[in-house]
Amino acid sequence: MARQSARKVAQAKTTTIEPKTRIEKAAGASGASVTTKSTKVTIVTETKVEVTETRAPKRKTTPTEPEFDGEDLENASPVEDKKPAPKKRKTTKKDAENTMALAARTAVTSLKRAMYIGAHVSAAGGVQNSIQNATHIGANAFALFLKSQRKWVSPPLADEAKTQFHDLLKQHSYDAGKHIVPHGSYLVNLAQADKTKATQAYDGFLDDLQRCEALGITLYNFHPGSTGGAAMSEACARIAGQLNRAHKATKTVVTLLENMCGSGNVVGSRFEELRDIIALVDDKARVGVCIDTCHAFAAGYDLRTPAAFDKTMAEFDAVVGLKYLRALHINDSKAPFGSHRDLHANIGTGCLGLRAFHNVMNHEKLQGLPMVLETPIDEKGPDGKTVENKQIWADEIKLLESLIGMDVDSAEFKEKEKELNAQGASERQKIQEQVDKKAGKGAKQGTKGKARGKKTKKEEESCDSCGESD
């Protein structure tokens, strides 16, 4: 009896499920106006899915990812010498191709300014799926990960995926040279001083650039890296050196340095640091900058009023040069100005507010650049589990498009501004209290340190979301 039970446990079980599902979905209007109408569409699908279950012996696992206290991972410092996080359950089919679009793409020529807006979409199942996912939300630009951003080694780019990617580009009329901006791995730190780790970082970086060229993609965005406690000037020089190597090993990709939130060890929170890296890059045509609005705000660059926005843009032009600005990440901020915390908020609900994005969308010199949303889309479903609501991105794309040429004194703008501001009020208050509490603790520690004649920690010591500490 025991032998028979053991055999049953070892064998795979195959069951056949024949579900019939009826899905009712409201299709959002595709116009550039904030107010949308919807029509009710009923889609009936019948599928037959064969599911194979296998049982494997349980293994003890240990956590491999650092905790970020609710912070976005966008500004996280590289996590090195750790195993990647456990893989999520993979789906056997992409639903993007069989799902009605949440919003139609707006013809950019119909807008008063040529603004190409989209989001960082999933490429699960193959890079070609990113195109379907972008069209699904009505995006005219998009970002993606070319491979797992949490693993050092990934399978090579499949020929079939590459072929499908090129075919879908033509089918949906995306310009891979201008409006697709892959995001680099969070693991890569081009400022790494350790020789072995620096080689590992460079190899991972170069692999991404080679994937870009195989796909015909020109722009590639990455986080500059962390000093690891060394001098900032030395870190900037190491980053530039690695870029020079990578540029010589490739032909066309333009590497974009992303500005960061303001941590002491993370490179790129000040425009001067970006300038210093670019100054040491041999081929200036192969380097540029991607500005993240949340990171800039958290680092102390104001964008909220027309005057503040113009001042920040003028400073960027004077320090770095607008000719190097090649892309933007469009995110509001849950955290207050100059807080050095990287907490992305939905457009208009954060501390930047809707007016800041009106400034962005109506700035003539930003025309033609890819603008990528990285705003939160996770929501709790009826069963209490977290699910992604991509309608949020579809709606935010239309919202941003509607701001082009909109009168900020109009009732339409004021009502939308008030509505979004109210939506994010409780979250802003919660984060403000956290920031104030941390500042209070820092002040007390500083007073104690001075009283004892000890040195206090640097103000810039860490950015919560970067996971940095002395």
From TrEMBL:
Biased composition (Low complexity): 34-46
Protein's UniProt keywords contain Iron-sulfur: no
CDD domains (UniProt xref): AP2Ec
Biased composition (Acidic residues): 461-470
UniProt cross-references to InterPro entries, sorted A to Z: AP_endonuc_2, AP_endonuc_F2_Zn_BS, Xyl_isomerase-like_sf, Xyl_isomerase-like_TIM-brl
Extent of Basic and acidic residues compositional bias: 47-56, 427-439
Alphabetized SUPFAM superfamilies for the sequence: Xylose isomerase-like (SSF51658)
This protein's UniProt keywords: DNA damage, DNA repair, Hydrolase, Metal-binding, Zinc
Compositionally biased region (Basic residues): 447-456
Cofactors named for this entry: Zn(2+)
GO CC term, one of those recorded: nucleus
Region ranges (Disordered): 1-96, 415-470
Family to which the UniProt record says this protein belongs: Belongs to the AP endonuclease 2 family.
HAMAP family, A to Z: Nfo (MF_00152)
Name of this chain's protein: Apurinic-apyrimidinic endonuclease 1
Species for this entry: Chaetomium globosum (strain ATCC 6205 / CBS 148.51 / DSM 1962 / NBRC 6347 / NRRL 1970)
